[in-house]
Structures are given as C-alpha cells and as structure tokens.
Specification:
The protein is an alpha+beta fold. It folds into four domains: 3-43 and 260-338, no CATH class; 56-252, no CATH class; 409-513, Phosphorylase Kinase, domain 1 (2-Layer Sandwich); 517-581 and 591-698, Transferase(Phosphotransferase), domain 1. The protein is 43% helix and 14% strand. It has 20 helices and 23 strands. Helix 2 (30-45) packs across helix 8 (287-310), helix 9 runs antiparallel to helix 10 (359-366) and helix 15 (531-550) runs antiparallel to helix 17.
C-alpha cells in the first residue's frame, strides 16, 4: 500500500477509535473512566494551599472506658463551661448518640442559649436547637471524600449545609462571588490542622477563660485519627469535626475549590479537540514523533488542570481526556509499527542481496527502508560495492539518494592535513586530519571521507612492521576478520564499522567517529560519577554487549578506556572491538593474547574458550572502578594479580561510599563470580539488575 492511501486509512481508523472511545467514556462506561479524573485530581490535592479555620479549636472527649451515658453527661459539662465563656460559636459536628425512646438530656436547653450552637439537622437534638444544617458526607466509590454540597434539598426546599449555615449566621461573612446557586458543590483537597484541647483541661477550675474568648469550638467524641470517618484526596484521614472545620474555613475565607458550569463545558470540549488532533496528526508521524507528541500533549493537559486547581482553585477534570488521547496514541504507534515491520523486512532482504553481490535488488530494497544510521552504513557499503564492480554512476546514485534522504553537510573548502610527523596524509579514500589516540592494535586517527564528507575514526596498524613474515598472513587475516565481525554490529551503543582496507603497508578500519570522553575520566576518586549515573552507564553497556553476544561477537577487552561517553548528548558507545573475534568453534582460539589483565575474567587469564560471560566479568570490574575509584583486584605483579582474580572475592562497595545501596554488592558479586555459569545469564539480565539498583542509589 502506498504512503498516502495508508495515511488516509490510518486516520479513519484512529478517528473511528476515538469516536467510539468518547461515547464509552462519557456514556455507558463513564463510571469506569471517572477513576482517571480522580487520579489526576488527587495528585494535585495535597499541594493545594488551604488556610486552617483561624479561630477554630477542637475539643474531643475520649470515648474509651466511658459508657454512652457518661459521654452524654460530659458533653453537658463541657457545653455548660463553654456557654459561660465568651466563645464565638459552638459546633457539634458529631453529637452523642441518643436513643429515640430516651428523653433529651437537661443540657439540651443550652442549644438555644445566647451562645450559638450548631448541629446536624438529622440528629435527635435538632428538635431542641434553632441552628442546624445538613451534614451529608458521601465518599466516592473508592472511599475518598472529594465533594461536599453547599445546599441540600430537604422537604421541597433548599437547606444549607452545616458549614454554610455556620457561615451565614456570622455577621462578618461575605459570600464568595465565585460560588453561585448554579454551583452548589465545593471540593475538598486537604486538611490544615487546627488547635486541639483536652476536655479535662477545659473543665479545670483554673483554666483561663481568655483562652477560649472569640473562638469557634468544635465539640465531639472522636479523637484524632481514631475517630476518622473519611479519607481526603490528600490521603489524610479526618474526623467529622475536622472536615467541618476545613469546609467552614474554605467557605468563610473564599478558598473553596469549585467547578463552574462554563468549566464543565470545557471538560466536554477538550476531549473532542484532542480527538481531532489525534486523528489529524498522529497517523502521519513515525513512532518517535507519536511518543513525543503524546507526551507533550498529556503533560500540557495535566499541567493546565494543575494550574486551574492550584492557582484558580477550580476543578477541571481532564483525566478522561488524557485516557482518550493515550488510547489514540497507542493505536497510532501500533499502526506505525506495520510500516516499521515492512522497513525491517526490506532492510533484511537488501542486506541479503548485498551479501550475495546482487547490488541492484539490494538498492531497490534499501530505498523502501526508513532513514537511519544502519541504513546509511548499508548504503555506504553498497556504493563501495558498485565502485568495485566498475559502476561509478550507480555508486553516485546511491550517494545522491543518501544525501536526499539523510541530509548532507556543507563541504569545506579544504581538509586540514597538518598532521604530526609520522602521520599519513591519506589512506585509501580517507583524508587524515589528526591522531586522536591509540587502540589495542595501533593508532586511531580522525579522518574524513571526501565522497560524502563524513568524519570517521580510522584505526590503523602498521601490519608489515609489527609481524614477521611467517605471521603476517595470519595477522592480516585476523585483522580483517575483526573488521568483519565488528561490521555486523549495528547498535546505538556500539561504534559502527563502515569500511576496511590496506594501503601503504598499513591496514585500516574506518568506523563511526563520536565525540566523547573515555570513562577513565571518571575513575579518578575526585571525579567519580553519581552512583545512579554509573549504574545507568553500565546498564547501557550491558545491553550493547548482550546484542553483540547474540551476534556471535565477544569484545574481550571491556574497560573504562574502551567506553566513550558524551556528556552533552548523553550518548554512550563501546569502542575498540580491536580484540573482538568472531566466535567460531571450528577455529583455534589464541586465548590471552590481547586485553588488559586487571579487567580480565578468570577464564581469559587461563587461556580458556571464552563466552560472553567474560565480557560481563570485565564490565563488573569496570563498574566497581567507576563506583569507588579503584579496581577490585590489585597487585604489584601479574602472577599475584592472576591469583587474586581467580581466587579472591572483591570487598563490598556499599560501605565504601555513601549513596550505594547494598543491592549493588549482590550484583557485583554475581558479575564477578569465578565460574561463568554463576554470572548473569546475559547482558540484558545484568542491565535489568543494574537499573533496579539505580532506583535506590543517590
């Protein structure tokens, strides 16, 4: 299917999906999806700034070891004491239980005294009181109390809630202009604690009356925490008096969280707009863009909801809109995957054609692939193959196609050839600029491929000088076998090999040039990385090694110097597969010829047949050094070093540096096991273990 028809088809699929999802979200399955709104609201609830009831005091009678009659009598004594004080008002949010057949206590006459006493209209004592209000606290289906109605329909008329009735009775109360009769509900977020007094202290004869003057007293028999009746969105457990006090503070101080009618209209409009955005823009994107657009949109929607709640004190439910857009993004991501699958299949067929020397079919398959670095490497090899077959015009066609799809940089007027003495000016087609280091088998130069103006790292070995005539053929074979094995690797954390050759008695391998510093920079005890950063870097390395091992390639020389890291781009690359050789059980292994002894595994020191477990051992040594600034096995000579590596266990690192969790010791113990079968099964398993440790590292 061509690109345009497939794009139109995908748009119709996404549009149909979001339409059905919108009907379900706001229709028959609304109760299922409302949990998303609650989840987002609750995340912000604890951060909402709420002022406590300024003059509020809670007096809680301890009901333990008291009968109901004793509790009722203590209510009376405290009420009598309070009415004799100059208190502002008394609220009985949770009065004592009185049987319907029992007579009202004598102190019920205090409910109509000069000191205002408020209590729920549904209680038995309401018959003797003139100041009542509706107190109906109904948690949501998940047992969290989020909403309280200001007005309740009772007997055909609208009656105020208890907090609103208390506020309306105050001469200083001025109604919040944001709250209208159309918005009869306010929302709870968190509870700001107010002062609590012990009943025995209040009943003492020497208790100062000035301490209660002008105060709002909430009297109950529900101690803090123990008497909690509901959980708030902030996950606080609150008693009925605490909830009433916070609602009263919100009403009187104009800090109520509301949901106006116009805001509820926005809640319906935003999902529709997001559905249109999803249908128009997501199907035309690649997977990376879909993830990016989804992430940005969801974060913006959640941020807007948070700003409305934290600044405007208005509840805007966007949870269901987020669920809808996430669903559309996941569908689009999956639809893009069908294109990706076709691209992967075409790349595989093209690679097979290229390996078989069928260049034109390979070019046709590669043109169907998505543009990326592995494709660029394959096309570059294809252009070289066309040149070798004396078809320069086809090679130029490949290069032109790469420039159109991959982009090109401006070609400089001339190359910098000012190398040091002894540095070749040119090897093969590559123009050398400067030496940048030495690898396990020779020098490494920064060079440039003038054909496509690409910077490359050129690893060079003076092969005829380094080897005797009888060993030269084997050395040359091993060098190019090394390039072949490394050239099979296409991984974001492994240096890519582009080309190899021999010129001026020098063998060379052209590979990806990356700007980064070796991890040896961070093995200085004064420049150590944060533990979680070191663990993440080694996890990336383990994943790359897992890929290489699955391709049949063992590095054999993993150490900080062979792992490059770019701080600016946060890119990590394993370099110098200079001692890697294609594992082939039909060929003789040369054992411990190359490598660095202090990072070697016991089996590598013993010249045994190596597997990928040897690289994981070396990675364990590297991690140990990155964490504490020294390798686990040190000695003054190679014999003692070999003994330590093969027989001794490393010292734990968790007690050598703050911020390293004990779980790292277990990972290192497994990675540095003496026998390969006792180590991690593969690099992927080790990467998972390292990232789990990083969660608890500082």
């Amino acid at each position: 299917m061509s690109e345009k028809p497939k794009e139109h088809r995908d748009r119709l699929v996404v549009l149909s999906f979001v339409s059905v999802l919108l009907v379900l979200i706001y229709g028959p399955l609304a109760s299922w999806f409302v949990a998303a709104d609650r989840f987002v609201f609750d995340r912000f609830a604890a951060s909402v700034r709420s002022s406590p009831l300024e003059d509020g005091i809670i007096i809680s009678i301890d009901p333990s070891r008291k009968s109901q009659d004793e509790i009722i009598r203590e209510y009376g004594r405290i009420l009598e004491t309070l009415t004799n004080q100059d208190v502002k008002r008394i609220i009985l949010a949770e009065p004592p239980v009185i049987d319907d057949a029992a007579e009202l206590p004598d102190w019920s006459t205090l409910l109509n005294g000069d000191t205002p006493v408020f209590l729920p209209a549904s209680h038995r004592l309401a018959a003797a009181a003139s100041r009542t209000g509706i107190l109906d606290l109904r948690p949501d289906s998940d047992d969290i109390l989020r909403e309280s109605r200001l007005w309740q329909l009772q007997g055909g008329t609208m009656a105020p809630s208890l907090p609103l009735a208390v506020a309306l009775a105050s001469q200083d109360y001025s109604a919040d202009p944001r709250v209208s009769l159309a918005d009869t509900a306010i929302f709870l977020t968190n509870y700001e604690p107010i002062e609590r007094l012990d009943p025995d202290e209040v009943l003492r004869a020497d208790f100062p009356s000035a301490a209660l003057s002008g105060k709002t007293i909430l009297l109950d028999a529900a101690p803090e925490y123990v008497g909690a009746v509901a959980q708030l969105p902030s996950r606080q457990y609150a008693t009925q008096s605490e909830i009433t006090a916070q609602l009263l503070a919100d009403v009187e101080q104009g800090q109520s969280v509301i949901s106006p009618t116009w805001l509820r209209a926005i809640e319906l409009l935003v999902p529709a707009l997001l559905a249109i955005v999803a249908a128009l823009f997501l199907p035309a994107r690649n997977r990376r863009d879909v993830i990016l657009l989804c992430t940005v949109t969801v974060l913006v929607v959640i941020l807007v909801e948070g700003l409305f709640l934290l600044i405007g004190r208005m509840r805007l439910d966007m949870g269901r809109a987020v669920v809808m857009f996430l669903g559309a993004s996941i569908l689009s991501w999956w639809l893009v995957g069908t294109i990706r699958k076709a691209s992967v299949t075409a790349f595989k067929r093209g690679s097979d054609f290229l390996a078989a020397g069928r260049l034109e079919p390979a070019f046709a398959e590669f043109r169907r692939c998505e543009a990326n670095e592995p494709l660029a490497s394959a096309m570059y090899k294809l252009s070289l193959a066309f040149e070798e077959q004396a078809m320069p015009e086809r090679a130029e066609a490949v290069i032109d196609w790469m420039k159109r799809t991959q982009g090109s940089t401006n070609v400089p007027n001339k190359f910098s050839l000012g190398g040091k003495e002894g540095t070749p000016k040119r090897l093969g087609r590559y123009v050398i600029e400067r030496r940048i280091g030495r690898g396990a088998m020779g020098a490494v130069y920064l060079a440039r491929d003038p054909r496509i103006n690409r910077a490359v790292a050129l690893k060079v070995i003076p092969i005829e000088k380094e080897f005797e005539d009888e060993d030269l053929a084997e050395a040359r074979l091993r060098f190019f076998r090394e390039a072949e094995s490394a050239g099979r690797l296409t991984h974001p954390n492994i240096i890519t090999v582009y080309d190899c050759g021999e010129d001026k008695h020098l063998a060379y391998i052209a590979m990806e040039y990356t700007q980064g510093v070796p991890l040896t920079t961070f093995t200085d005890p004064k420049k150590l990385l944060a533990p979680n950063k070191a663990l993440e870097m080694c996890a990336r390395t383990a994943e790359a090694l897992d890929y290489a091992h699955n391709q049949g390639v063992i590095h054999r020389d993993i150490k900080p110097a062979n792992i490059l890291y770019s701080l600016r781009q946060d890119h990590l690359k394993i370099s110098d597969f200079g001692v890697a050789r294609l594992t082939d059980n039909n060929r003789t292994k040369t054992g411990i010829v190359l490598g660095t002894p202090m990072y070697m595994s016991p089996e590598q020191l013993g010249a045994e047949t190596l597997t990928g477990h040897s690289d994981l051992f070396s990675l364990g040594v590297t991690l140990y050094e990155l964490l504490v600034g020294e390798v686990p096995f040190k000695a003054t000579n190679i014999a003692v070093l070999m003994t330590k590596i093969t027989t001794e266990d490393p010292a734990p690192v968790s007690n050598r540096r703050p911020g390293i969790p004990p779980s790292v010791d277990a990972v290192l113990f497994k990675a540095l096991a003496k026998r390969p079968e006792n180590r991690f099964t593969n690099g992927g398993e080790m990467a998972i273990a390292l990232r789990n440790c990083a969660k608890y590292a500082s």
